[in-house]
Amino acid sequence: MSGNDQDLAAELYRELAATEDLPIERTANRWIGEAQAVAREVRDVSSEEVRREGARDVVRLLSEVDGTENERADEHVRRARELAERLAQA
Questions:
Q1: Which pLDDT does position 3 carry in this prediction?
Q2: pLDDT at 2
Q3: Which of 10, 50, 62, 84 is most enclosed, with most CB atoms within 10 A?
Q4: 3-state secondary structure of 90
Q5: Confidence (pLDDT) at 90
Q6: DSSP per residue over 56-84, as a string?
Q7: What pTM was computed for the model?
Q8: Number of domain units in the chain
Q9: Where is the DUF8152 domain (predicted)?
Q10: Within a 13 Å sphere around the CA of 54, how many CA atoms are in the beta-carbon half?
Q11: What is the CA radius of gyration of the chain?
Q12: What are phi and psi of 3, to 5 degrees?
């Protein structure tokens, strides 16, 4: 994984981790939690193919989030989705 991809993967994980302590809607919280677990793997993996596939999974999981009922969390999710899309195409 290139240095830039490593940075993107770390940033993706940080965006999702930033939602942990925010009050958010229950269903959204479940999807975000699953996406965060995958993002942790994306951050730590060295295989480009596995990283891209994991990033695609994060995009799919976050696409299930219609809103969190928290503006800060919504912004983190939006940024995480953008980062995952970039990583999926890297």
A1: 61
A2: 56
A3: 84
A4: coil
A5: 76
A6: HHHHHHHTT----S-HHHHHHHHHHHHHH
A7: 0.93
A8: 1
A9: 10-88
A10: 23
A11: 12
A12: -60, -40
**Considering Cα of 31, then 35, then 38, then 44, what sign does the dihedral take?**
negative
- How many helices (H) does the chain have, and how many strands (E)? 4, 0
Tokens representing 47? 């295989």
CA distance 58 to 39: 7
Q: How many residues are listed for the chain in this entry?
A: 90
Give the range of the structural domain holding residue 83, as residue numbers without chain letter.
3-89
CA dihedral of residues 31, 32, 38, 40 (deg, nearest 10): -160
**What's the token pair of residue 23?**
């009050």
pLDDT by 10s per residue, the chain, length 90: 456 888 999 999 999 999 999 999 999 999 999 999 999 999 999 899 999 999 999 999 999 999 999 999 999 999 999 999 999 997
Q: What does the block give as tokens for 19?
A: 């939602």
